[in-house]
Na+/H+ antiporter NhaC (Natrialba aegyptia DSM 13077), 557 residues
Amino acid sequence: MTSEFGALSLVPPLLAIALAIITRRALLSLFIGIWAGGAIIAADGAETALEFAAVPLLAVVEAFGWIVASYGDDTFHAEIIAFTFLLGAGIALVWRMGGSVAVAQAATTRVDSHRRVGLAAWLLGLVWFFDDYANTAIVGSAVKDIADEVRMSREKLAYILDSTAAPVATFGISSWVAFQIGLIQDVYDSEAISGETPSAVGTFLRSIPFNVYCLLALLMVLIIVLTRRDFGEMLDAETRAQRTGKVTREDATPLQSMKKDLGEPAVDDPLLRTFVVPVAVLVTVVVGGATITGFQAAGVTPGEALSETGALIDLIDNTDFTGALVWGSFSMVATAVAMALYDDVLTLEESMETILDGFGIMLTAVSILVMAWSIGTVAEVLETGQYVTALAEGIVTPTLLPVVVLLSTGIIAFSIGTSWGTMGIVTPIAVPMAYEIGGGSPELLSVAVGAIFSGAIFGDHCSPISDTTILSSTFAGADHIDHVRTQLYYALTVLAVSIVVYLLYGFFGLSPFVLVPIGAVVLVGLVYALSELDAARKDLVAKPFAGARERDVPSDD
């Protein structure tokens, strides 16, 4: 299937992305992109001169129709908005009770350096593998104040959150995996594939070594954290933070700022439990709620889920993760209010005002989310994904399959800003295509699935209209476009190595268990080489900012 609008279908998302990166005005850029989509639709239906003259106005009407629909027509979107607002309220209450300060004070003796803070954020991200939204929210909230203490730039923290949360969700028991297995099963159940094939679960498990971008993206974060070698705009951001203590750019617009929006904590001697207990309640309710909904909807018992792979996948596939996030964030707010009243830190009126302030600190993030979803709708209406996929189909051979799938999926994800939407577009096309050109090879099916995951996450990391990228900026307290610009250098580096790995596999048939370690070595070499070259070009010191630290900045030694 090809897009009715052809290359025009690329204009709205690419225009929005280009303007966002150039102007650093995400909301305005996204609206212009949505308006451009409305203009294309209006012009396509215009027949008279009067109708053509009315295209700009009709485009505004169309644009607001998509924006309004993004708020409530999709239950998933409504739940994510509710979760984001409620989590903002919970975070605000914890801040006012001094919980964030207490965590920073408690962690200072152990997580007392730039390297250790980065490593802690990375490890926490790996542990919270079953949902990327909750991953960025919980890890970002726990680490942000500690990161400020060691002068880690907000751009670096946002990168660690973003480049850990989504990749790790593609490997384990997560909503991502259940969604992709469901797509694979749908293809197997259709007439697109006949004959003997491994199960959808088996295909997914075999695809893990071929999910090269996600594997290397996780490794890239670890390399950057441990070596403290940066390049591109991240080097500028880290140098600024280390030399001046300014964790954001001078004229940056962070998606949230606790001190600016909420003022100072209400207590002078904060207690650690004011952070630990609300967050523990959040985690418990999310995990418990998700598990209960899975068992109820799938109709399986705990014994069946543990002993039968199919039953476990049914459980995961039927789990209401987003609903559980809403319940968990509400429980966090209720717990925080109860603790504030019990400890006599805040009155009921002050607690309610803080909740409203918490909603306020998330308003910009939610606005960008809605606009990003709206431009995703534009791409869906104009069939942008189908157009890109149709272009890719004409140049596919078994040797080039993983590279073509990786790049085409990446372009689609970059353009429409949603990994799940991208996988939904590409999987029904790429998997049968891999089956046909590979002569029914089960391995090539797994290669295609791994490349789909890789491309979807790569495009997600680079796109300013991606919801996970927006949330990473939000919970790191970073300027959103600054996060996109700084992460882009690292994402492209990982992409380049992934392409090399896929080409080596295509031409020589080497095992991914050999190729991925080779890619890791290449990645380490590139980080060292690029950091040295960039530091020399900018007359900056690449290696752990020797000579660039202020005396009061904790040492990694």
Q: What stands out?
A: The chain has 27 helices and no strands. The mean pLDDT is 81.
